[in-house]
Amino acid sequence: MSRKEKVVFLSAHNSARSQMAEGLLRHLYGDCYLAYSAGVDPAEVDPLTVEVMAERGIDVSRQKSKSLKELWGTAFDVVAKIRDWDKEPCPFFPQGKRRAHKPLEDPLVAEGAEERMLALRAARDDLESWIVETFGR
Question: Contact at 8 Å (CB) between 50 and 94?
Answer without folding.
Answer: no
